């Protein structure tokens, strides 16, 4: 039975979190069993989050005397630990006002999550919510939640970021079909990847040597385009990784086929596996994304630089793959302990690499009570991680100003509808998080040489735009305002959020890249190719700084937008990223929401970073 004290507490001033409808991809089955147990987790508000951007600028702004002095994980943990007032307020409400016995409440070791082991009936009374059982339309997995929202007392709500499981249903949106007249096999996983591939018969391989980079973009093309000629000198001290999710896997035979033709020193070499939640690349699955990422990074960097692979397992019901990866890197992000099928077991126990490349999308960047609190917490965690000297790079998407390859636009009623000319633009996560370096896609123009600056891709619209969840950071104010004042189309104010974080930050080639997949050479691409290419460039920059006795570059965005890096990019001024019944945004001189600052000139970029402390 729920104590009478709880009923008294709920008549006080309250703050509600409401969701309007059942999230897309889920079906409501029935009311949850009131006697079933539920691990109710309260994510506590962290301390000093209002200073996170200032802390990052202190170590990432080239003008700062503390540039490059990254924080230790221990310092990050203590700085952002929830305050004693926050803990006491929430714990006191649970025990003294709601009558929850203290034995049912646990605090995780890092002091950021309070877990209450309650029955469904207790949770419903505690949160003034109605819990149901829902089914995933794609894989049939079940979860409990309360899509109708929940309520906290006003004096408690300011100390709690969100309560889980409630309105957030976790996990990525449905898998997206690849583009192109012939596509790689559809992925059995639920993760949205950014690339498609059309098969080229292996007997045509000889043609790659004579065709232009507009027809077949090889490693040699990338080297010429980006002035990239790299020999590692820092050995095992430097590190770089790609993250793959679910059943997006690779085969060594494909790597060897690719390396035998384009990078012989890498034949039989393989990435170092970092398994997250039991992630296993040796399963049946989709070969397109992992093959693309691994071959590009290993091919560009060569055998002197090891590549790590974060293989993140398909999440259990209700979990978000972003949470699994972030928890594996930082134990403070984990819940108290695994409970049933919903627990995370890898909590801060996985090695961190200097650069992490992510070529996936997990959520649309829209204001939604079932999404916003969680993605804001995820972005904050990314900021804390890059504060320690890690660079996280993500693809900007293949849907132009719409949501990825599903081309979804946001209607006034809050629904997402594909290719709707009346909808507003939709950014995507994690690319729109301010602490991510987002990478758009370019191509060599038809008939052009590698001496000429590329154009934005035309085979698909490169993702870019403005966040709804994250404000524009000060380090990109001048560049973005210049675009808005001089080049942005005159769309209605409701079409996109002019004050939001703008992306992408940079670009790299996204089509038509030559890789080996499924025993054959294929043309592949997407911004999911652009991200690992740029990740390889930053790994090479780190190699040079480490050799010079300096720190890794870590959070690079403030530096990239600074005057010190004005000549480090090839300015892309041709192209656009249409969507939602519009032409999207046009490329323009300087930064634009199609190609960002442009494509890298490795030597100039490296030298600019070497000039910093």
Automatic annotation (TrEMBL):
Polar residues composition-biased segments: 449-460
Entry-linked SMART domains: Pro-kuma_activ
InterPro entries: Peptidase_S8/S53_dom_sf, S53_propep, Sedolisin_dom, Tripeptidyl-peptidase_I
Catalytic residues (UniProt): 289, 293, 528
Free-text remark on how the cofactor is bound: Binds 1 Ca(2+) ion per subunit.
Domain Peptidase S53: 216-612
Molecular function per GO: metal ion binding; serine-type endopeptidase activity; tripeptidyl-peptidase activity
Protein's name according to its UniProt entry: Subtilisin-like protein
Naturally occurring in which organism (per UniProt): Mycena metata
Source organism phylogeny: Eukaryota, Fungi, Dikarya, Basidiomycota, Agaricomycotina
């Amino acid at each position: 039975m729920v104590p009478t004290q709880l009923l008294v507490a709920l008549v006080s001033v309250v703050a509600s979190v409401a969701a309007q409808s059942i999230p897309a991809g889920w079906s409501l089955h029935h009311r949850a069993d009131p006697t079933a147990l539920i691990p109710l987790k309260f994510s506590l508000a962290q301390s000093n989050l209002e200073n996170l951007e200032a802390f990052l600028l202190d170590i990432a702004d080239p003008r700062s005397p503390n540039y490059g002095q990254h924080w230790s994980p221990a310092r990050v943990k203590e700085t952002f630990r929830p305050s004693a007032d926050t803990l006491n307020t929430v714990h006191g409400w649970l025990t003294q006002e709601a009558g929850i016995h203290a034995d049912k409440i646990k605090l995780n070791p890092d002091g950021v999550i309070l877990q209450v082991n309650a029955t469904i009936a207790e949770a419903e009374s505690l949160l003034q919510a109605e819990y149901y059982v829902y089914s995933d339309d794609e894989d049939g997995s079940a979860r409990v939640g309360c899509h109708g929202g929940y309520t906290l007392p006003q004096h408690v709500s300011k100390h709690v970021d969100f309560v889980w499981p409630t309105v957030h249903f976790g996990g990525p949106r449905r898998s997206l079909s690849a583009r192109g007249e012939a596509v790689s096999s559809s992925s059995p996983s639920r993760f949205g990847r950014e690339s498609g591939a059309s098969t080229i018969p292996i007997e045509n391989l000889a043609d790659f040597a004579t065709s232009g980079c507009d027809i077949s973009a090889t490693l040699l093309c990338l080297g010429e385009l980006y002035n990239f000629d790299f020999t590692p000198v820092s050995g095992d001290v430097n590190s770089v990784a790609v993250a793959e999710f679910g059943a997006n896997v690779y085969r060594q035979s494909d790597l060897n086929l690719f390396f035998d033709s384009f990078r012989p020193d890498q034949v039989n070499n393989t990435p170092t596996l970092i398994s997250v939640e039991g992630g296993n690349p040796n399963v049946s699955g989709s070969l397109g994304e992992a093959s693309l990422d691994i071959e590009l990074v290993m091919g560009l960097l060569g055998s002197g630089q090891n590549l790590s692979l974060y293989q993140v397992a398909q999440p259990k019901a209700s979990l978000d793959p972003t949470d699994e990866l972030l928890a594996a890197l930082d134990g403070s992000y984990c819940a108290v302990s695994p409970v049933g099928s919903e627990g995370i077991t890898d909590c801060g126990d996985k090695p961190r690499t200097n650069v992490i490349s992510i070529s996936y999308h997990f959520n649309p960047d829209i204001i939604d009570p079932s999404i916003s609190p969680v993605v804001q917490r995820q972005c904050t965690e990314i900021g804390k991680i890059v504060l320690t000297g890690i660079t996280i790079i993500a693809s900007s998407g293949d849907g132009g100003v719409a949501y990825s390859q599903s081309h979804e636009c946001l209607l006034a009623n809050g629904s997402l509808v594909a290719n709707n000319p009346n909808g507003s633009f939709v950014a995507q996560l994690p690319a729109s998080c301010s602490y991510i370096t987002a990478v758009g896609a370019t191509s060599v123009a038809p008939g052009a040489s590698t001496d000429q600056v590329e154009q934005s891709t035309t085979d698909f619209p490169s993702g870019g735009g403005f966040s709804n969840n994250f404000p524009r950071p000060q380090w990109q104010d001048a560049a973005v305002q210049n675009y808005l004042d001089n080049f942005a189309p005159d769309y209605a104010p409701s079409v996109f959020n002019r004050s939001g974080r703008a992306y992408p930050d940079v670009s790299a080639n996204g089509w038509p890249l030559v890789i080996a997949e499924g025993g054959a050479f294929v043309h592949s691409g997407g911004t999911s190719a652009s991200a690992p290419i740029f990740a390889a460039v930053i790994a090479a920059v780190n190699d040079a700084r480490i050799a010079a006795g300096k720190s890794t570059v870590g959070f690079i965005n403030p530096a990239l937008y600074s005057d010190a890096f004005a000549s480090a990019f090839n300015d892309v001024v041709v192209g656009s990223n249409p969507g939602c019944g519009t032409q999207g945004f046009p490329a323009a001189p300087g930064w634009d929401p199609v190609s960002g600052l442009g494509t890298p000139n490795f030597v100039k970029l490296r030298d600019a970073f070497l000039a910093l402390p």
